[in-house]
Amino acid sequence: MLLLAFAAVLLLAVLISALAGRTILSTAVLFLGAGFLLGPQTTGVFDVTADTPIVSELAELALFAVLFTDGMRVGWADLRMAWRLPGRALGWGLPLTLAVTAVAAHYVVGLGWAESLLIGAILSPTDPVFASALVGNEKVPRRLRHLLNVESGVNDGLALPFVIIFLAAASSSEHLHLGELGLEIVLGLVIGIVVPVAAILLERSRLFSASPAYEPLNGLAIGLLVLALAKATHANLFLAAFAAGITVATFGPRQREAFEHFGENIAELFKLAALLVFGALISLRFLAEISWQGWVFAVLAIFLARPVALWVSFLRSGLDMREQAAAMWFGPKGFASVVYGLLVLESGITQADEIFHLVALTIVLSILLHSSTDVVVARAFDEESETPAWHGSLRRRLRRGRPPGAAGDTAPADTAPADTAPADTAPGGGTEAADGAVHADAAEPERR
Q1: Which residues have C-beta within 8 Å of that of residue 167, sequence separation ≥ 6?
Q2: Contact criterion met (CB below 8 Å) for 218 and 256
Q3: How far apart are CA 149 and CA 135, in angstroms?
Q4: Where is there biased composition of kind Basic residues (predicted)?
Q5: 36-50, 263-277, 366-380: which has the minimum mean pLDDT?
Q6: Cα separation of 241 and 248, whole Å?
């Protein structure tokens, strides 16, 4: 029944995808809602619980695919050429979001510091899919789209080590083996770097060459080999995936380009399937089990943590207030947080169930809020869509010193005013070439 449900919802998502691109509808919300309606505690169409094997297996594969494709979005050259604004969001915004969320969890909910820091790490990554109308709108300043793309593509992987460390710290002392943890991390990084480099060098040699038809499969083969080796050696799968994606982007731009669209489609399928399963774990009874302090925490995690963190991060950054407000608001909690929450649930730590309830509530609220406001905020950047045609014509006539209706003014009513500055012009007249020129649109997701 799970496969039948996924196939039916996927077909419906495809059929309404064009409409979703123009409205507040979101196909991600569709899968989450379908899982909620069909789950065991609602209608019971399919029986899925947190300890069902398919939940952990699907979440593992989906996060591996997402981190691999996320890593491919930015190579080291891209980061060097366009680092300033994304660097602020990642270097300052991510740890500050983690810290503010942890403080709220500790003082509002009453979690211990290790568990509070863990939930802060889980909820610090962002997902661009739930704000895709903003990221994919060309009327939105390029530097803002680039900032959100790079940040959301990188912060899943950057948050992962914090999740691993704080999860280990929250475990009882007999389960805390720092040596094994360090070995898993190092092995994951080594496999994620060595395998892609070796594969790319082999293809560049005289003995081997991929045909155009098989080029997209090169990235898939590299990803599968990294996954298999990481599982065989008990390395950290997710760090291996993220490192492999960055390595391919850095050393194999041709392989990256061939695999990019194909890989994103694969990751999207896994992500939507995992969201369907995640929705099945949520029910009215599940939400009723959360205390009022938990609801207050979820609201603070969405409306306070990221806005405060990015406000501090972007002080004297050159972003105007409208761009800064959009970046502060669009920190949707997405798929990585879902899987990190499931990892905690499977870990067996004392407060795993409470942490999962808080994470799940925050993610559900975030998906509903952010996916229903991205189109609205994106339109705020499109002055032409908000301004009547007659208004633009009247303003041009007045600026030329002619009264309305004067002869000789033949400019069409829908022509942009001559004094309109480019969308990505920085305050003060300069342009953000360094923060928007490289791959600003290369990885912009379609609205899902």
Answers
A1: 118, 343, 344, 347, 349
A2: no
A3: 7
A4: 393-402
A5: 366-380
A6: 11
Residues 90 and 51: their CA atoms lie apart, in Å, by: 33
Domain assignment present for residue 8? The answer is no
State which amino acid sits at residue 245.
Answer: G
Q: 71: number of CA atoms within 13 Å, CB side?
A: 28
298 confidence band (pLDDT: 50, 70, 90) = very high
The CA distance from 302 to 147, in Å, is 19
Beta bridge partners of 425: 431
- Half-sphere exposure in the Cβ direction for 139 (13 Å, CA): 16
Domain containing residue 358: CATH number = 1.20.1530.20
Which tokens go with 37? 């309606």
Q: Stretch 233-262: mean pLDDT, rounded?
A: 86
Q: Are 111 and 119 in contact (CB under 8 A)?
A: yes
Mean pLDDT within 3-27: 79
pLDDT at 24: 59
Amino acid at 113: W
Range of the domain at 148: 21-385+427-436
Task: Please answer whether residues 277 and 48 qualify as being in contact, where contact means their C-beta atoms are separated by less than 8 angstroms.
Answer: yes
Q: Which of 333, 372, 263, 272 is nearest to 14 (CA)?
A: 272
Residue 347 lies in a domain: yes
Burial of 180 (0-12, 13-18, 19+ CB in 10 A): exposed
> Coil, strand, or helix at residue 360?
helix
Q: Return the higher-pLDDT residue of 59 and 300.
A: 300
Q: Are the CB atoms for 124 and 159 separated by under 8 Å?
A: yes
C-beta of residue 137 within 8 angstroms of C-beta of residue 381: yes
Q: CA-to-CA distance for 59 and 41, rounded, in angstroms?
A: 21
Residue in this structure with the two tokens 């480099």, named with its chain if needed: 197
Mean pLDDT of 246-259: 86
Q: Which residues contact 410 (CB under 8 A, 6 or more apart)?
A: none
Give CA separation, 175 vs 167, 179, 344, 371, in Å.
Answer: 10, 12, 14, 39
Q: Measured between alpha carbons, how far is 251 from 245 in angstroms, rounded to an integer?
A: 10
Rounded mean pLDDT, 124-136:
69
The total domain count for the chain is 1
The CA distance from 168 to 348, in Å, is 11
Q: What is the mean pLDDT of the chain?
A: 77
- Among the ranges given (70-74, 76-80, 123-127, 395-399), the one the predictor scored with the smallest mean pLDDT: 395-399
**SS3 (DSSP) at 24:** coil
Residue listed under structure tokens 């790079």? 150
Q: Is residue 400 part of a domain?
A: no
Phi first, then psi: what are they for 323, rounded to 5°?
Answer: -65, -45
